[in-house]
Write a sequence for this structure.
């Protein structure tokens, strides 16, 4: 019995952690959709959804039920296997980065040996608020999100429709182009921090004189933010689903739950780039001066830090909605010129400047 | 135990995807299978404590190169019904090369078995980012530089080949081509088309 519990214990702990993290992120994502509709309504002088529940707070669940119960139409001439695969790829690649998010500082003040039975707490000194602390968190997130391009490209191709194909091609070209600028904008932060680990980057910011890397890496932040808009196919770079030209772009032929999966993937991707921007440039969960008020490693400290982390992310999400409500769409050639001829050179120049600065600061 | 079980799962996946890549008639399915091979390989790298190589494998092969391949296949829109124009002797050549590869694999196994077992201290840290970076820019600097120059050459070559000619140059090339084919009277049509 005791050995069985000991073997099962890590699996149970990880299952609970994964469940909590994914559930939390999906709830935030669901309410981002509602917030988007509300804020867009206010920007345009309307009220927005207000019928389901008080102030429309149950709207996301009503939407989800509608998606589940709608008829699922599959185009007759589509390539069936790829058609079914595409939304799964899109959502899986959007959700996978959750495992490396640093949701908060690890809690070190709990005495696990006393709380847990069967001597399970032996040797456990901290409760990390990350599911997997891997050495290459930044590369992991960039790599997984780059695989997400397949979801969109394959959806566009397999639907066997002109609008879908055009949308898929546009989207793939756009995401491949802006991925380069995004990767180059991150290099500056990685050089200043000296690590690819997301938690390590936060600690490097705490110990640096700037506190937040947005100050020395302002150009990097600027490039990252713009390429993040392009990577998530948001206004002003939402050409893959430009309604006036392409109906709905790559997901024209998708209905019911399959469309919901694409929709969710887009908002989870927004969450992911917000997390990356927060961790890389805005200090992650770190609140300057909180260490003097609360004891680092205690539960209140972790809780306040966690709330600060979520708050920074929500600020980014609001920024996305705000931009959507105010800016018009780019033309496709403008988009490509902007990415290749302006953002990428700017990001590379930033890398070179950072190399010189880091060299002189370290010597 | 869990490690070896994971190895067999991902190795089996990689082999299954590789077989499916070779045997599929539809080039897009082959490309997707190849992506599966890359992802399985990167999972194996993770179990071998080399997270950096795993991440780079996904980022570069699955995320960049194969996306371009899929892109090209989608744009070419290859015909499925076209009969395969395979030559008989290619089977023999392929089989021979496969046999050589198999022999090489067994030879490597044999050599590894025969080699004296030495304790590897750095096994846990070899795959870490910092060690790879340090190795690349100190011990293996020359190979890295050579690869860099090679890639630069490839980029410049690609740009030269894909470069759009300026209008007068393009007209000159088209005129020359039409002269060679004896189609002088079509020059006007092409001038409009360019």
């Amino acid at each position: 019995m005791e050995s069985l519990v000991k073997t099962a214990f890590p699996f149970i702990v990880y299952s609970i952690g994964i469940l909590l993290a994914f559930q939390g992120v999906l709830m935030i994502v669901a309410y981002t959709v509602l917030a988007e509709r509300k804020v867009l309504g206010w920007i345009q002088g309307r009220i927005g959804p207000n019928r389901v529940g008080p102030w429309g707070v149950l709207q996301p669940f009503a939407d989800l039920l509608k998606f589940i119960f709608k008829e699922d139409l599959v185009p007759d001439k589509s390539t069936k296997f790829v058609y079914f695969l595409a939304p799964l790829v899109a959502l899986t690649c959007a959700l996978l980065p959750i495992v490396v998010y640093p949701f908060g500082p690890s809690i070190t003040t709990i005495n696990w040996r006393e709380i847990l039975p069967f001597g399970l707490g032996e040797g456990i000194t901290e409760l990390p608020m990350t599911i997997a602390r891997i050495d290459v968190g930044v590369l992991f997130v960039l790599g997984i999100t780059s695989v997400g391009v397949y979801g969109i490209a394959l959806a566009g191709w397999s639907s066997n429709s002109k609008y879908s194909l055009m949308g898929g091609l546009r989207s793939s070209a756009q995401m491949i182009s802006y991925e380069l600028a995004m990767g180059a904008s991150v290099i500056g932060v990685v050089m200043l921090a000296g690590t690819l680990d997301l938690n390590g980057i936060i600690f490097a910011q705490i110990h640096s004189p700037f506190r937040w890397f947005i100050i020395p890496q302002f150009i990097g932040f600027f490039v990252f933010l713009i390429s993040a808009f392009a990577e998530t196919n948001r206004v002003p770079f939402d050409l893959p689903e430009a309604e006036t030209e392409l109906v709905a772009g790559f997901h024209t032929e998708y209905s019911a739950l399959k469309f919901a999966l694409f929709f969710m993937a887009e908002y989870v991707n927004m969450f992911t780039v917000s997390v990356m921007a927060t961790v890389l440039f805005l200090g992650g969960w770190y609140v300057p001066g909180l260490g003097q008020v609360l004891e680092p490693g205690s539960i209140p400290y972790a809780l306040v830090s966690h709330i600060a982390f979520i708050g920074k992310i929500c600020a980014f999400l609001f920024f996305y909605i705000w931009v959507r409500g105010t800016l018009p769409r780019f033309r496709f050639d403008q988009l490509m010129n902007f990415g290749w001829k302006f953002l990428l050179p700017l990001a590379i120049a930033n890398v070179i400047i950072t190399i010189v600065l880091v060299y002189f600061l370290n010597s | 135990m869990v490690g070896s079980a994971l190895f067999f799962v991902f190795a089996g996946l990689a082999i299954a995807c590789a077989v499916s890549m070779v045997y599929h008639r539809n080039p897009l399915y082959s490309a997707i299978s190849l992506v599966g091979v890359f992802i399985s390989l990167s999972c194996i790298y993770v179990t071998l404590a080399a997270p950096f190589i795993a991440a780079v494998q996904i980022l570069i092969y699955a995320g960049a190169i194969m996306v371009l391949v899929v892109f090209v296949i989608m744009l070419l829109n290859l015909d499925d019904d076209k009969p395969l124009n395979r030559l008989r002797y290619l089977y023999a050549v392929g089989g021979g090369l496969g046999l050589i590869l198999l022999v090489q694999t067994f030879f490597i196994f044999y050599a590894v078995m025969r080699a004296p077992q030495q304790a590897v201290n750095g096994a846990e840290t070899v795959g870490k980012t910092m060690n790879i970076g340090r190795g690349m820019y100190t011990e293996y600097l020359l190979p890295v530089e050579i690869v860099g120059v090679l890639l630069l050459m490839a980029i410049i070559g690609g740009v030269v080949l894909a470069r759009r000619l300026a209008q007068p140059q393009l007209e000159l090339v088209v005129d020359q081509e039409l002269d060679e084919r004896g189609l002088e009277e079509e020059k006007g049509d092409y001038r409009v088309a360019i």
